[in-house]
Amino acid sequence: MRVLAVSDEVDQALSYNPSAVASAQLILACGDLPFDYLGSLMARLDIPLVFVPGNHDPDISGYRTSRAGLQLRAGIPVEPPWPAGAVNIDGRIAEVAGLTIAGLGGCVRYRDGPNQYTQRQFGRRARRLAATQRWRAVRGRGPIDVLLTHAPPLGVGDGEDAAHRGFSALHPLIARTSPELLLHGHVHPYGVDTPDLTIGATTVRNVVGWHLFDVPARHQHDPTDVRHGS
Fold first, then answer.
1. Which residues, in sequence order, are CB contacts of 46 under 8 Å at separation 6+?
2. Which residues of the chain have pLDDT under 70?
3. Taking the model in full, what pTM does it have?
């Protein structure tokens, strides 16, 4: 599966002419990008898009799909702000384009605003996601291929300042769910190459800007970067 992963930094040239990423089969977005930019990439490439929100994104909590297929918020039909057809994976697990993807958006709370959590709050969210995966496993569903987050794990690619500190709860979540790949944004490299890191057997990758890479078949994952931009 050829994946285009994007986060935090808009590349207008890519939006106008996505020929450099025309081989992508799936877009994974790690937050802090305008929805119109994501919609443009999705429409021009004509491929699915899965995303989690960042701390500079609007509050997108509370949306749900009714049995009739209507999008609801507080029980009232409403169009969500994200691109039509995009999958909000925040706090969820879904199978999209042959990959099993889980997501937890947001960053460590450092000021007022949506999509920010204390370590304890995020820990509760992580435990709920782990419980969802245990339930899936009991029902014979496969393991998580990609864990999509906005902030990185604590001590693994995060920053030293309060705004860019990582989440401690991602460590036990990874231990319990064993994703092959964790993709995150939030920490801007400002032109400096960011090597892949690891937690156990899980590869942790900062995808600020855009990255195009292959995710091989399940249980044979060895993600290799073939293109990087910001």
1. none
2. 217-230
3. 0.92
